[in-house]
Amino acid sequence: MLEKLVRDRMNGATLASAPINKEWIEAGDPRASLAILAYSDDRATSTILWECTAGKFTWRYAVDETIYFLDGKVTISVGGGPAKRYGAGDSIHFSRGALATWEVETFIRKVAFCRSVPPRPFIAARRLARSLYLRLRGRSDALAAQPAFG
Predict the structure, then answer these.
(1) Is the CB of residue 35 less than 8 Å from the CB of residue 99?
(2) Under a CB-based contact definition with an 8 Å cutoff, are residues 20 and 57 in contact?
(3) What pLDDT sits at residue 1?
(4) Residues with Cβ within 8 Å of residue 82, at least 6 apart in sequence
(5) What's the predicted TM-score (pTM) here?
(6) How high is the pLDDT of residue 117?
(7) Which of 76, 93, 117, 131 is deepest in the core (most CB within 10 A)?
(8) Which residues, at least 6 apart from 22, have a Cβ–Cβ distance to it below 8 Å?
(9) pLDDT tens column, 73-95
(10) In terms of Cα–Cα distance, which of 58, 56, 54, 66 is closest to 110?
(11) What's the per-residue H, E or C state across the chain?
């Protein structure tokens, strides 16, 4: 039973080539590779080890992605805004639909926690249903009302 609930075979994961869309590359010849470390049973969430060599590209996020950088340095600008430098120990979150320009100096390695987001009408309906349910039970959703960031 425990084998179905816990996945611990992530050590020594083999990275496979994961080419960046050529239309997204603005400079250099960035070479990316990844290993899927884990995923949820419904495949809505995944944990990915990703690394990339030097280059500049604009990434288009099709899923929500929270990143924790393990090694290297990268400069990222979002939506033409000011660029910010990230390295080992830093983290950032991108929501589905975000565009971010990455400029990798020599190499970058990250762990990405990805979540496929349901369609917006479904999210709105789910929030409404949860709100009604909590009101009927006489409770509030204090955690959702006070996000830690953003």
Answers:
(1) no
(2) yes
(3) 46
(4) none
(5) 0.76
(6) 77
(7) 76
(8) none
(9) 999 999 889 999 999 999 999 99
(10) 66
(11) CHHHHCCCCCCCCCCEECCCCHHHEEEECCCEEEEEEEECCCCCEEEEEEEEEEEEEEEECCCEEEEEEEEEEEEEEECCCCCEEEECCCEEEECCCCEEEEEEEEEEEEEEEEECCCCHHHHHHHHHHHHHHHHHHCCCCHHHHCCCCC
Among the listed residues 116, 111, 117, the one whose alpha carbon sits nearest the alpha carbon of residue 47: 111
From residue 24, give the alpha-carbon distance in Å to each of 21, 30, 84.
5, 11, 19
pLDDT of 104 reads 98
Residue segments in the chain with a per-residue pLDDT below the cut of 50:
1, 149-150
- pLDDT of the residue at 133: 82
